[in-house]
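Record type: monomer structure entry
Structure origin: computed from sequence
Chain ID: A
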Amino acid sequence: MNAAPTLHSTARRFPLVVAVSTSTLLLTSCGAIEGIAGSDSSVSPSKGDDITVGLLLPDKETRRFEKFDYPIIKERVASLTKKKGTVRYANAGASAAKQSRQFGEMIDAEVDVILVDAVDAKAIAPDVQKAKDADIPVIAYDRLAEGPIDAYVSHDNELVGQVQGRAIVGALGDESKTSKIVMMNGSPADPNTALFKAGAHSELDGNVIITKEYDTKEWLPSVAKTNMEKAIQALGLDNIAAVYSANDGMAGAVIDALKEAGASRIPPVTGQDADLAALQRIVSGEQYMTVYKPFLQEAGNAAELAVAKVQGHAIEFDALTPASVNSPTDKGIRSNLVPVVAVTKDNIEETVIQDGVYTVKDICTPQYAADCAEVGLG
């Protein structure tokens, strides 16, 4: 497993549950580039608005990447460059080897900056170095890539695990200390996995009984389902009080395994990413919660950093990089860590709907109309 990135002492710490409007935060960050340009008159822009941002995303299983991250970054780059800037996009389909080839193609195409969400944070390091040698800055996006990156945009990922772990303990209530749970962690190749896991353990250890714990290759739901089937067989369906699932795709697979095993009631299952299917499962009572990481803000901030870097504006500024993190290869990486929100059936309207990620109509399809009415949506 890759060594976990660590927060520097200057990193901002956020409350465990932050109810925040992304639209408001985006308005706050908009104009940061103009403000910095004005305050750093000693820096001459290296390029104007005619720029190309390379964007490398890791997989299509995580639905937000194609549905939200790429379109948001594309729109924001266009907005910041008077529609002269473009985004060259590639998705690795969960293959580190494919992402390496795509990275090389970005370098060969002489893009001006690369945003990369690494499939394998360690394996991508030589490609990051090649970009550095070609004078192409690299910004790690969502996952902290190794190598000489210029900045990092993500979330407080240990906090994500804390939010998930605390949700399980809260759901189990007075019976938590005698309750047996299963942990379904993410991919060992993703450095965020170690942070999610550490955060979750900080809340779960001593408060529940962890009976089985699995890592999940490439975050694949199929792998999570197989592991959940093994856990059910080893423990017995009635002996599983809750399941820690690191993300929503795996949560869906875990729930399918529980239902196929004959569960009449689904125990609390966590998730992450606020996928539409997960929100519908939450409304219907099958999934207990998800962690909404305001990716509208994350993607918008990443686009601003990329444009600022290309245009010669210093990125070591408080407006967009108030935090600092360490990777196994670099120390003091300037970072932007977006706060996270725990979403349950009680606050869907105040979070993902208020932020415009989904509408009530998106969530409350005919299949879920009665469930939505019961929780006050619709």
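Annotation 1: The mean pLDDT is 88.
Annotation 2: The first strand starts at residue 6 and ends at 7.
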